Amino acid sequence: MPKDRFNLQLFSHLAMESMIMSVERQAVLARMRSGDLTLSNAEVLEAFKIDPHFDPYSVPLEELDPAHPALFANDTLWAHFERLRAEDPVHYTAESMVGPYWSVTKYNDIMYVDTHHELFSSQQRAGGIALGGQPREDEDPYALPMFIAEDPPKHDAQRRVITPLFIPRNLAELEPLIRERAGQILDKLPINQEFNWVREVSVELTGQMLATLFDVPQEDRMKLINWSDTVSNLGNPEYFDTPEQGFQELFQCLAYFTEYYNQRKTEPAKFDLISMLAHDPSTNNMTPQELLGNVLLLIVGGNDTTRNSITGGVLALNKHPREYEKLLQNPGLIPKMVPEIIRWQSPVAHMARTALQDTELGGKQIKKGDRLAMWYISGNRDEEAIDHANEFIIDRDNPRQHTAFGYGVHRCVGNRLAEMQLRVMWEEIMQRFSRIEVVGEPVYLPTSFIHGIKDLQVIIRA
Ligand code: HEM
């Protein structure tokens, strides 16, 4: 066959293939946009399959889609954000498995969006706080109304209910208990033997903490962990065939907490999250969906984030042996190291918003109704805002200058609790072990919402 005819055939084959792909994608997107939760997770991934190792500098800018879960599962996201920060800090992706969206990748722009809730809404009714979220009315059985996905004034009223639990005086009271639990967990670990740090340590500590905050039996902590994992993995085919299947688990969570909520309404008010929700006028009359939504917010908020910071710290220290040496020489650095670990890990990779009106951001025209992702994980690597942002430095000046907890009215309510848990954990680790050695490649979660590690094989040296 003449060469030019061969090329033509190859070209038309490729064009046809990309057209078929595009039709497939359009069908998948249409079903997603209609809020269809019976769509197979594997089918979605197949329709949007990419080579996660492709060089982001080798394609036209407009093809960059940093929300693709494969980039997170393979830890290949960094160069994508590096290019966007340098060449297109407020970037539009027209076609993706989460629909069209803007990426906000620089520190100052992220702070601008996060502190202008009158321009950029968190409401679930407009799409909510994670890319791919569909607008759902509160009455929809699959809606999960929660105060993180509300705007003021409702947001403020509900947030105020649980804030007292996180004030410094209460955290100081909790500290001895966390220290005791951390010690017990660490004392049970095998020495000179390989195991998964995530399961044995990070999950255990955060699970116990959650059961304490809700004042439910410690034996039930794995239920809480399971429901938290369900939320993070609704779209993950390794967990569920369809999101709808994941929701069946969440309805069990609702049944579990409805009992406690109703029971605590009849008892004198006490200082746990369920009792606080059950007694305050802003939250004592929640619909089942709203109760489930707010409980899940507290479970996921307090679990995935801290869990991944505990794991991320072990990994970061192993990848930066000079920093590990500094810590071994001077454990007094722990309070400074903790916010650096949180910045480095950025466990919440993004929070999404919906534009409430036409507006301008970084020279780009954002239209009313457009979806935006504030990429905290990218803002935390922005060299123009943070000195040596791409280096892990456990004794850096001003370590709390990072985007990982967000800003504005939604700034993380549990930030000091998270820091305290991490500080106590590291203090107890340093009391016991000379080193935690990472001995396997980390296995990352395939999601662009939580930057998480599900498996980290380690060996502890006494
Ligand atoms: C290292 C650990 C943590 C990180 C990185 C983290 C990160 C975040 C981020 C990024 C937000 C949204 C901020 C925004 O939209 O501006 C948030 C909100 C929230 N976090 Fe955390 N979080 C952590 C630990 C915790 C803990 C331990 C709890 C407590 C149980 C918690 C409870 C919440 C709640 C309830 C909200 C919603 C606040 C609101 O909408 O007003 N978080 N967190």
Which SSEs are present, and which pair or pack?
Layout: H1 3-33, H2 41-47, H3 69-73, H4 78-87, E1 90-93, E2 101-104, H5 107-114, E3 120-121, H6 154-162, H7 168-187, E4 194-196, H8 197-214, H9 221-232, H10 243-266, H11 273-279, H12 288-319, H13 321-329, H14 334-345, E5 350-355, E6 359-361, E7 364-366, E8 371-375, H15 376-379, H16 415-432, E9 435-438, E10 443-444, E11 453-455, E12 457-461
Parallel strand pairs: 2-8
Antiparallel strand pairs: 1-2, 3-5, 4-12, 5-8, 6-7, 9-12, 10-11
Describe the structure.
With 462 residues, the chain is an alpha+beta fold. It has two domains: 34 residues; 427 residues, Cytochrome p450, CATH 1.10.630.10. It has 16 helices and twelve strands. A five-stranded mixed sheet has the order 1-2-8-5-3. Strands 4-12-9 form a three-stranded antiparallel sheet. A two-stranded antiparallel ribbon has the order 6-7. A hairpin with a 7-residue loop joins strand 1 and strand 2. Helix 12 packs across helix 14 and helix 14 crosses helix 16. The protein is globular, with a radius of gyration of 23 Å. The protein binds protoporphyrin IX containing FE. Protoporphyrin IX containing FE binds next to helix 12 and helix 16. The site of protoporphyrin IX containing FE has 28 residues, from helix 12 and helix 16.
